[in-house]
């Protein structure tokens, strides 16, 4: 097996485990590290097939991650549920959530065509596609109820960006001091955002873009549709500016999605996600810079997050 780079090297036990899940006569001929993962190592494995062809698999490895078993259980269950639903997701090949066979908890899945699109070009096309895809995800009805969503942010853990309007942020923090509004539960991806969506964008016809895959199902939960919409909105606001964060909720409703009826309830979920991101600015910015958005420094992300929270408070507060 050849490695594309040193980081791509597959550990010996994992290599043996993957090999046991290949067809007779197949072997791993190449490993390549994939960018973008914050909590997991991602590797694309090229497999030579018996007929002389090749296919790709993806190995997801959690190294020294506290919740690896839970996340891999959720992802394996989600990929099983999604098979045949029309939602473009990887196919589950095997999972070793307790590192019984591999050095670390791991999941093996099929590789999807397409690429993430994180630049500003084509947003008028891509945002409605994202919205329609999320509506389709929320329409899924699993036979078994998923774990309830967890909101880790509290009013006391929010990190107010330097230079932010203290009064605006204090008002936003007061919003999440209140109890969560009642909601109709939905199947949530819980990290639905442009970094976890793959597109096919024809160079000659950008308006003909289509979504080819949604990845990273490790945080799937049961909760309000508003929470997934809020998370994608925050990411769009930071990547492309506050107006696109506000636009996504409109696109979701235009696609047939249903959000909380009251403006105060919508504000709660949208602000909660924005404030949650205040605690993870560095973790959010790094993979985006690695993917080509060099201008998204930690400071730039803080400024865009501040502008978005301010826009939310003005629009819904």
Distance between the termini: 57 Å
Topology pattern, helix = H, strand = E: EHEEEHEEHHEEEEHHHHH
Secondary structure class reads alpha+beta
Poorly predicted runs of 5 or more residues: none
Shape: globular
**Estimated share of beta-strand residues:** 15-25%
* Assembly state (oligomeric): single chain
Number of helices: 9
Compute the CA-based radius of gyration.
Answer: 20 Å
Characterize the biggest β-sheet: 6 strands, mixed
The number of E-state strands comes to: 10
Q: What helical percentage do the residues reach?
A: 25-40%
Q: Would you tell me the overall average pLDDT?
A: 93
Widest beta sheet: strand line-up: 1-2-3-4-6-5
Task: Provide a descriptive summary of the structure in words.
The protein is α+β, with helices and mostly antiparallel strands. The chain is built from nine helices and ten strands. The strands form three sheets. A six-stranded mixed sheet has the order 1-2-3-4-6-5, with helices on both faces. Strands 7-10 form a two-stranded antiparallel sheet. Helix 4 crosses helix 9, helix 5 crosses helix 9 and helix 7 runs antiparallel to helix 9. It is globular and about 65 Å long. The chain starts with a strand and ends with a helix. The model has no long low-confidence stretch (mean pLDDT 93).
């Amino acid at each position: 097996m050849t490695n594309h780079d040193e980081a791509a090297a597959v550990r010996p036990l994992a290599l043996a485990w993957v090999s046991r899940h290949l067809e007779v006569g197949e072997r791993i001929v190449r490993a390549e590290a994939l960018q973008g993962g914050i909590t997991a190592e991602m590797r694309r494995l090229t497999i030579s097939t018996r007929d002389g062809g090749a296919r790709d698999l993806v190995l997801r490895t959690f190294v020294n991650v506290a919740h690896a078993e839970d996340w891999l259980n959720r992802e394996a269950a989600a990929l099983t549920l999604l098979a045949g639903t029309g939602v473009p997701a990887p196919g589950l090949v095997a999972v070793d959530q307790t590192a019984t066979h591999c050095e670390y908890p791991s999941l093996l899945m099929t590789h999807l065509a397409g690429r993430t699109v994180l630049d500003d070009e084509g947003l008028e096309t891509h945002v409605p596609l994202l919205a329609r895809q999320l509506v389709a995800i929320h329409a899924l009805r699993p036979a078994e109820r998923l774990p309830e969503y967890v909101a880790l942010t509290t009013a006391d853990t929010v990190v107010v960006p330097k230079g932010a309007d203290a009064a605006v942020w204090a008002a936003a923090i007061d919003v999440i001091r209140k109890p969560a509004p009642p909601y109709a539960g939905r199947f949530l991806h819980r990290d639905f955002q442009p970094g976890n969506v793959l597109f096919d964008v024809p160079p000659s016809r950008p308006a003909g873009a289509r979504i080819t895959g949604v990845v990273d199902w490790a945080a799937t939960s049961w909760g309000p549709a508003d929470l997934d919409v809020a998370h994608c909105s925050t990411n769009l606001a930071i990547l492309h500016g506050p107006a696109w964060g506000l636009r996504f909720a409109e696109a979701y409703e235009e696609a047939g999605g249903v959000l909380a009826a009251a403006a105060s309830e919508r504000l709660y979920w949208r602000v909660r996600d924005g404030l949650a991101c205040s605690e993870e600015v560095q973790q959010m910015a790094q993979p985006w810079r690695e993917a080509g958005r060099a201008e998204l420094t930690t400071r730039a992300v803080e400024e865009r997050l501040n502008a978005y929270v301010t826009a939310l408070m003005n629009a819904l507060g």
